[in-house]
Amino acid sequence: MASSRTSLPLLQSFRPRSFADRGLAAPFTTPLLLGARLRRTGAEMEVLVPNPSGGRGVYLLPWADITSLCRPTMHDTVLGQTLAEEAARSDGPGGLTPSLVAEIATDIAIRGLAGDAVAAQARLEAEQVSACLAETRAGLLRRITAQVEATMQPQGPSLPPVETATPAELEVRGLAALTVLARLWDHPPGSVVNRLDQMAGLAATVGPGGAGGAGAGGGIAGRMIASLGQLRQELQLWAEDPSRQTQTAAIVSGLGRSASPEAALAVATRNAAITVHAADLATRMGQALLDAARERLQDLCGTLHASLADPVGVDDILSRPVWLLDGWPQILRCWRAAPSIMSRTQALHDMAGLLPILPEEVAEWLGEPGAPALPALAPHAPDPADAVPFPVIDHRLLATSERVARLEQVRGMAWLGAA
């Protein structure tokens, strides 16, 4: 893992203007890439790597030059190269999206490049996402079919409720309804069908709440917000648990550290407080963006029609929740990896370093110029006034192979809560 990173540019202050500038989280298994983000600049993909010393700033370099910083694992090499190729050929702002990165990362994990356990979990997640997409598409098709058929009933034969239709019957009736709309809007039927399918992919992330099969708390983003609520509760319980003092003392003693358990506990407690604060912000902001996205789906015919003329504008509204929540899956994985894979203290140390910085753009999205944001300092760079003389427990204490193995185990943890 030795590298020439000292010769690379270090951005001392990183406050992204937009979510695209912030970059996208990727589930890397190389220790030095923990918390790294990717973004597209022109046809090239850049990687932003948190300062390995734990201080402020990030290293910024093209992914093609990543070996000047570290030697990525095979999993990360294939993941980064695949994303770079996708970024080079993708059209539209940013090229890559959180959903696309997650899809590509899952496909690569299924190949077994990070181990059998990660592959098994990736297959399960792929099945969950596929089922959610199919359920949401059927729900959208059912709704739009019901709306169109309701306007045609006086002129045609009476039809049984669309809710009772089999999947095959729904496809036939849905295609007929979309064809009617295509003629009304003067668009080719195929383009209307394709556009509904594209919207279904985004609707599956927000959970249209009554618009499709997913309920009010459904959708990937809705389930992630629910998981964040559970995380906040568990962190608060941990902070109130008297046994954590004894556990932390045993960990520090076992590592032969000279610093006091009290200091280690203070760091862990502060990391927990920072994480609770960030999760609370993400929950409140995410729910507001989720509500706005679901509201657009209530008038499904109107939104579908508008998206034919302005697909980017509609997609932007529907994709905002997952952009805001990007990076939280890895944080949830870290917490769920404790205490079986690593201690709560270590998990909190890693989680604080993974917390996403909120770009200025979030205030525009929420329509509130004074919208709350995370502290100006990156979460992985504690305020000097609160600093303690050592980071709690560090992956760097382990051999390289052990560090990679630990991150692979974390990668294999389930993070998505129940619908």
Offer a quick outline of the entry.
This protein is mainly alpha-helical. It is built from 15 helices and 5 strands.
Detailed description of the structure:
The chain has 419 residues and is mainly alpha-helical. The protein has three domains: 5-118, no CATH class; 121-206, no CATH class; 220-411, no CATH class. Helices cover 57% and strands 5% of the residues. It is built from 15 helices and five strands. It has helices at 19-22, 74-89, 98-110, 116-152, 167-185, 189-206, 220-240, 244-254, 261-298, 300-309, 311-325, 328-336, 344-354, 361-366, 400-411; strands at 10-11, 24-25, 37-41, 44-50, 58-62. A five-stranded antiparallel sheet has the order 1-5-4-3-2. A hairpin with a 2-residue loop joins strand 3 (37-41) and strand 4. Helix 7 (220-240) packs across helix 12 (328-336). Mean pLDDT is 80; it is low at 1-6, 210-216, 252-256 and 369-398.
Structural class: mainly alpha
The H-and-E topology, N to C, reads as EHEEEEHHHHHHHHHHHHHH
Biggest sheet descriptor: 5 strands, antiparallel
Rg (CA only): 23 Å
Strand order of the largest sheet: 1-5-4-3-2
Q: Please give the share of residues in helix.
A: 55-70%
Q: What's the number of helices?
A: 15
Assess the beta-strand content as a share of residues. 5-15%
- pLDDT averaged residue by residue: 80
Judging from the principal axes of the Cα atoms, what is the shape? Answer: globular
**Alpha carbon gap, first and last residue:** 40 Å
Tell me the total number of β-strands: 5
Q: Which spans have pLDDT < 50 for at least 5 consecutive residues? A: 1-6, 210-216, 252-256, 369-398
